[in-house]
Backbone:
């Protein structure tokens, strides 16, 4: 197996003014003394709340595959308290972040094949490591070309049920007995070839359980996705798999707290957030939103971001008055897990492909619901009324004006 | 003016296993080299996004009052881009965190007077510093005695319109031309002496503009507040003051994203979160929730936490199987501002009274709404329907079960 030099993951492609470092965690580990770091980690990562997030040893086959493949591999464990009436329900979950190995100027078939080959390597390692549920980044099978507004990239769209990326995931799901969440650009031939941003959920027997379409579509920066597809029409499905109930909040939906909540109301224990987002725009939000969702909804979140810098054939402008250019900015990776008790793992690297693994005791979800009581104290009736009023065009905001002014 | 030794703010009272440090920020500044710290701060604090959070110089009268009074004083500035059709709308806003100076065994009148005297000092310094809108911590006029479940502490409840704490705030509002948010334990004599957890909003002319009652009441840890008062009945009012539109999300409401959203839908530009929360329970959540709210709702948040360790006369248990004890744990202060662009200030100290000041350009709220478009992409109609269905007792969650299992 040769070491690929993926497009945009080598140090040379860096992220310029954004610093080119691996992760904030690694910087803190390098400089903050251990007796102080424990306090920093308690406040910043929710560690040492009785349930430290511990590193987990992996089989040599997995670690050597990662070393040979040149990607980041990390593994942790979230623990729940023992219960008297239920055994622990520990699920091993994986997140994959990957750059596009071939340049965007290569023939499309070649680009897709290069990504498939790379991701197959990583998923095989996840299988060696015993991962039971795995999620890839948003539109993992193609460059994130929506910045260009060129419609030729629509060629990458494929059937959710029988496209080549779904077929690959089905093969790997069967091989490893693994549930795979497969976020793709979908072409919906049952509806005139409509395009959607879709996550296909494939069961551990290789069957397609169902799909979810991205609910919220951005219009910010170079995220010209509204040029390509519309708001999803699949609600907030939760998929009951062999290894737990999972939901998928795709990318920009993470900025919408009610989207996170929608999956929670339907019973999700793990919600994945497959994303593609760049450093200049969103990096300070990245450590916030997934964790807030995990806390507020008493479930685990697996947050996955694309990695690398993708260069496109034709220059485009970004609506910011700056000259036309050929790249979207740096996708900063940093995939991580967040738990309902406010703890989190460190992130994967900002510049490398990666596989993040965590053992999640799903019992923690109910334990946190019982501890904090957010569901019972949520007053959904009040908010149902407020929203029903708000969506009317003649909504009158509840404003109390100072009468003395 | 003598230096008081407030109950629980001296180093000696510390917070034991929680480390006794001033703030994570101060630790990072002490150990991380400046050329690395800039990257840490970019990711952790949203700085260097074109709008660094800059320290602001204050009048000598304010800084010397803080030095003499022995409390933490910090001041920052959040900037917005210049606009062509609107001038900047910069408001100077203050947050006060304070311990209880007298022991909880002192006569109640003496306890309240000691707090009034201390807070008067701090608000007078805020006036010298030109603060226009100020908010205090939750139930600032009394010890947070709800851990005890003893009803004698209800004596501290007072009229929202004419109680002694409201009177003091009215006097100081008139003196300094300042809007003051006054979170108190309210006794509602118009409804049979009912008790509420209430924020009274006092205008810069000293008049009571209105009040808001805490929407979500905790049942967690020693937060036995549901023993004392019920869920609020005032909706999500936004108060239109001389210096902007403000809302108040009281304490535990910060765990409820729809509560934050309620104030946003009604047009808030600044939402205060007056709180009282302790380190073992919530400290890793504290840097997350207010920032997530500021991002998701495109407004500023001023998050205020009580400070110090309060010891009560009679021992109580905490529902955790541990022996009866007399303290609630350490209220860790750490009050801060969060902005809609994901940036934040450093926190006030974890062990000292404090006054946090920030100049907020309110134009940033609309700028972030226009940039990110969260309001327009929010699909409130979908959520109004979901919640209307969910509140029915026979709601059927949207679950897709793997048919192969």
Residues:
């Amino acid at each position: 197996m040769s070491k690929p030099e993926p497009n945009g993951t080598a140090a040379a492609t860096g992220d310029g003014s954004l610093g080119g470092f691996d992760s904030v965690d690694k910087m803190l580990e390098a400089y903050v003394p251990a007796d102080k770091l424990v306090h920093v980690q308690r406040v910043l990562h929710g560690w040492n709340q009785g349930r430290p997030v511990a590193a987990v040893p992996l089989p040599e086959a997995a670690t050597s595959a990662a070393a040979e493949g040149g990607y980041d591999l990390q593994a942790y464990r979230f623990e729940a308290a023992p219960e008297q009436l239920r055994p622990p329900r520990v699920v091993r979950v994986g997140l994959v972040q990957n750059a596009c190995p071939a340049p965007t100027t290569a023939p499309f078939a070649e680009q897709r094949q290069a990504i498939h080959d790379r991701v197959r390597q990583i998923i095989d390692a996840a299988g060696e490591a015993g991962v039971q549920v795995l999620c890839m980044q948003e539109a993992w099978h193609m460059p994130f070309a929506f910045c260009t507004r060129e419609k030729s990239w629509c060629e990458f769209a494929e059937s959710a049920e029988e496209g080549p990326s779904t077929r690959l995931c089905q093969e790997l799901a069967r091989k490893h007995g693994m549930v795979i969440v497969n976020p793709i650009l979908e072409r919906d031939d049952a509806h005139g070839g409509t395009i959607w941003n879709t996550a296909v959920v494939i069961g551990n027997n290789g069957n397609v359980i169902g799909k979810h379409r991205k609910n919220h579509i951005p219009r910010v920066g170079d995220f010209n996705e509204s040029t390509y597809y519309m708001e999803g029409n699949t609600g907030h499905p939760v998929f009951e798999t062999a290894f737990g109930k999972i939901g998928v909040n795709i990318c920009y939906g993470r900025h919408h707290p009610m989207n996170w909540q929608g999956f929670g109301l339907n019973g999700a224990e793990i919600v994945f957030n497959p994303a593609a987002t760049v450093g200049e725009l969103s990096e300070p939000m990245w450590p916030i939103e997934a964790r807030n969702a995990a806390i507020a909804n008493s479930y685990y979140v697996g947050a996955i971001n694309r990695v690398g810098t993708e260069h496109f054939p034709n220059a485009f402008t970004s609506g910011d008055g700056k000259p036309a250019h050929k790249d979207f900015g740096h996708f900063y990776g940093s995939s991580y897990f967040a738990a309902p008790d406010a703890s989190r793992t460190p992130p994967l690297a900002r510049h490398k492909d990666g596989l993040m693994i965590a053992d999640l005791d799903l019992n923690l979800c109910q334990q946190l619901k019982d501890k904090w009581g957010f569901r019972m104290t949520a007053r959904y009736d009040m908010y149902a009324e407020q929203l029903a009023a708000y969506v009317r065009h003649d909504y009158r905001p509840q404003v109390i004006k100072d009468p003395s002014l």
